[in-house]
Design goal:
28% of the residues lie in helices and 27% in strands. With 228 residues, it is an alpha/beta fold. It binds S-adenosylmethionine. S-adenosylmethionine binds next to strand 2. Pfam families: Methyltransf_23. It comes from Capillimicrobium parvum.
Length: 228
């Protein structure tokens, strides 16, 4: 399948418990994620009429509900390289939101075209990538106006690539990246690509440390606004 991640190496297709949670979120039946609420509260008011938004690494597509709930209805697109999650968004979010299923696209961030969306949202994605630089460069070039990111950012690069004991039985050999990236370097790349960058305090963690699958993550939110 073009643009799809290898299922034998992709944790998102091999974690039934998380998948069930994503299904409930897609149906808007689960408790709202604090970070999704914050994404909508920060980015929503900046989005002009008729502007598009790409939710990059959208999972089951549920962030749309956080924007809708707050009255923000940009032209919504989702992208994810896990077929099961794109199918979930197409089946559960699209019809409830009155959108064509094609608004949720199977594909890789790495294949995004330059200047393709007004706004880009990317939450909790690059931390689980081998490295942030190549996909972030693509996201920055895809964003015509602004980008909102949430990733684990610290003082220095920490690469963790470990089996995940919380995956389904028989899949726990799959290794997952849980990286922390140097905040200054990430901000430097955003600035070099033409964005003014604002740090925004992460409400879920208070800019502290959160353990995710027993690994410390330092979730930080960055807003990038393209200089005119
Ligand atoms: C931890 S989940 C986060 C999902 C959602 N953004 C959220 O915060 O709930 C990471 C998602 O990013 C997707 N993903 C990771 N790398 C990607 C890439 N290079 N291109 C497209 N999707 C990617 C995965 O398939 C997965 O659905």
């Amino acid at each position: 399948m073009p643009g799809a991640a290898n299922p034998d190496a992709n944790p998102w297709a091999n974690d039934r418990a998380t998948f069930d949670l994503y299904r409930r979120r897609a149906r808007d039946e689960a408790e709202e994620m604090t970070c999704a609420a914050q994404a909508a509260a920060v980015l929503g008011p900046l989005i002009g009429p008729g502007e598009s938004l790409l939710d990059a690494g959208c999972g089951g597509g549920s962030y749309l509900w956080s924007f809708r709930r707050r009255g923000f209805i940009p032209e919504w697109w989702g992208l994810d390289h896990t077929p099961e999650l794109v199918d979930l968004a197409r089946a559960e979010v699209a019809p409830r939101a009155g959108l064509a299923p094609e608004r949720f696209m199977l594909g890789a961030i790495e294949d995004l075209a330059e200047g393709s969306y007004d706004n880009v949202l990317c939450f909790n994605v690059l931390t689980n990538s081998p490295h942030y630089a190549a996909p972030l460069e693509r996201l920055l070039r895809a964003a015509r106006k602004r980008i909102l990111l949430r990733e684990s950012l610290g003082d220095e690069l920490v690469v963790r690539f470990t089996p995940d004991p919380y995956l389904d039985e028989g899949k726990r050999h799959i290794r997952v990246y849980h990286n922390t990236y140097p905040a200054d370097e990430v901000i430097g790349l955003m600035e070099a690509e033409g964005f003014a960058v604002t740090r925004i305090r992460d409400e879920r963690t208070g800019d502290g440390t959160e353990m995710v699958v027993d690994i410390p993550h330092q979730w930080r939110i960055l807003l990038g606004e393209r200089r005119s």
